[in-house]
Amino acid sequence: MKKAFKKVLVFIAIVGGIFYTMRYNVTEQNPGHDNRDESSLNEKYKPVNQNNVSKTTKLILVNSEYGLSEGYKPEKLTIPNIPFANGVEQEEKHVESVIVNPLERLFNVAKDEGIVLLGNSGYRSYKSQKETYTNRVKAEGKKLADAYVAKPGFSEHQTGLCMDITNNDRYFVEGTKEADWLAENCHRFGFIIRYPYGKKNITGIEYEPWHIRYVGEEAAKYIYDNNITLEEYLNK
Ligand SMILES: [Zn+2]
């Protein structure tokens, strides 16, 4: 009788152990993710919590307050069929596949309208951001590095949703026909000038006429028409 009781106890312990392990694994595989679809994230002014954002969401926010983890990588990276400036690293030619078509259309329409644009920098991995940051700290000290280089995980380029654009003169500033065309037209293809002039107090970044970010046509038009930033659009 005693022996049988012991056997039952051992059995319960084993089954309990297996059950506990299974539950633990399931929790591990889904760290804080729910399956909100993209349309719900598209609602205006809906706060986007980084932990709940799927990897391809067009409205993901990355700035000095909202970073990406070391393991964050866009779902599918592709090299778009656009001309690149000389010397662009292979990694930086890649973008998240959802922006390939809009980006190629933007480049083609620009060309049709007499504007030659060149891709200069798209995706930047956490690893390469870390290298850039570390090298800068070594060369100039932490204070200067922090002023000019994003800490690893805090560059929007890690999303694969943006591209730095340049021109044949490698002089892409306000007043050049390429930069002016981009500012007036990129929203037609779902892109915004992510760091507009006079908005550093909101974006945390100086005016960058060359950095375009894909947010989808609806959001891009709203942001362009109202002269606001992505932070303001998301009510951050
Ligand atoms: Zn950029």
Roughly what is the average pLDDT, rounded to an integer?
84
- Largest sheet, strands/sense/barrel: 4 strands, antiparallel
Number of helices: 9
- Domain count, please report it: 2
The CATH class assignment of the largest domain is: Alpha Beta
- The main sheet orders its strands as 3-4-6-5
What class, by secondary structure content? alpha+beta
Radius of gyration over alpha carbons?
23 Å
Percent in helix: 25-40%
- The CATH topology of the largest domain turns out to be Muramoyl-pentapeptide Carboxypeptidase, domain 2
Ends: how far apart? 68 Å
What are the low-pLDDT stretches, counting only 5+ consecutive residues below 50? Answer: 18-52
Question: How would you portray this structure in words?
Answer:
- One of its GO terms (molecular function) is peptidase activity.
- This protein has helices at 2-29, 38-41, 100-112, 126-140, 142-148, 177-185, 200-203, 217-225, 230-233, and strands at 77-78, 95-96, 118-121, 162-166, 191-195, 208-214.
- It is α+β, with helices and mostly antiparallel strands and 236 residues long.
- The protein has 2 domains: 1-30; 37-233, 2-Layer Sandwich (Muramoyl-pentapeptide Carboxypeptidase, domain 2).
- The strands form 2 sheets. It has a 4-stranded antiparallel beta sheet.
- Helix 4 (126-140) crosses helix 5.
- Bound molecules: zinc ion.
- The site of zinc ion has 4 residues, from strand 4.
